[in-house]
Amino acid sequence: MDSSPAAAVRARSVPLLAVALLAVGPGRTPAADVQISWDKDLAFEWDRASYEKTLREMVRASEAEVSSWLGWPRSRALEVRVVTRERYETQFGSAAAWSSGARYARGAIHVNGGARLDGSFAGILTHEMTHAFLDDRGTAWRLPTWLNEGLAERLGYRTRGLHDLTTTQVQQLEVALQQRQLVPLAAGGGMTPFRYLQSFAAVLFLEKKLGKETLLAVVRRAMKQGTFEQALDAEVRWTTRNVEEGFSYWVDHLQ
After folding, report:
1. 112-129 burial by CB neighbour count: b if 16+ within 10 A, else e?
2. Looking at the DSSP assignment, which residues form a beta bridge with residue 83?
3. How far apart are CA 89 and CA 161, in angstroms?
4. Strand 78-83 with 20-22, pairing
5. Model pTM score
6. Torsion over CA of 89, 95, 100 and 103, rounded to 10 degrees?
7. CATH topology (fold) of 20-138
8. Torsion angle (degrees, nearest 10) of CA 44, 47, 48, 54
9. Which among 26, 73, 225, 253 is most buried, taking Cβ atoms within 10 Å?
10. Orientation angle between helical segments 48-70 and 119-134, nearest 10 degrees
């Protein structure tokens, strides 16, 4: 997927390390293994063991957080591939190589080799881990883009201690509403910084309006069978138009 709008992380080089296997964590039924693999071309300039340990802990924490919030474990093995910046750039483009610490694609989370393992990276990792969970059974395509990305943003921001919109984000949404650009929500296509914000805010609206469990019931139903519209109708008797109208009203009354 697609990168989070959280603060960008510049890439550095990292070492060649052996493969590590992880599980979800204590107190939970073990999920399928997470395998961390390291690009053989990665160079090393500092404490290799410390970097490996920190990344392993961050992956474990990210997986546990996403599993706990969504309410289900993964069923398939997941690989976290730490690759060189050059290989990352080849896969995801030059812009991503300088602005993204990780990206979920083709059943694996690709880590931009040597990304600084700080709070911003933790948020990006959780964003991408959310995509991995939503696509665990090859089901992410059943969700509209705004819901898929909005859930990933919700959890990515949560990891960084942000549980609601900032004043600046509220102002951006209000301007979009005034300019009649707040809706429609992105059903597909590429993402922009505003689309990430729009998606995050729409998920927050649904969580506050319907409650987290009802929101997740819609998500689970859509991932299992039918379409998102059918799941939305079955769970809450809404249409996408109801979502967009309610979202617009909510934004209009944020302050």
Report:
1. bbbbebeebbbbbbbbbb
2. 112
3. 30
4. unpaired
5. 0.85
6. -50
7. Zincin-like (3.30.2010)
8. -130
9. 73
10. 50
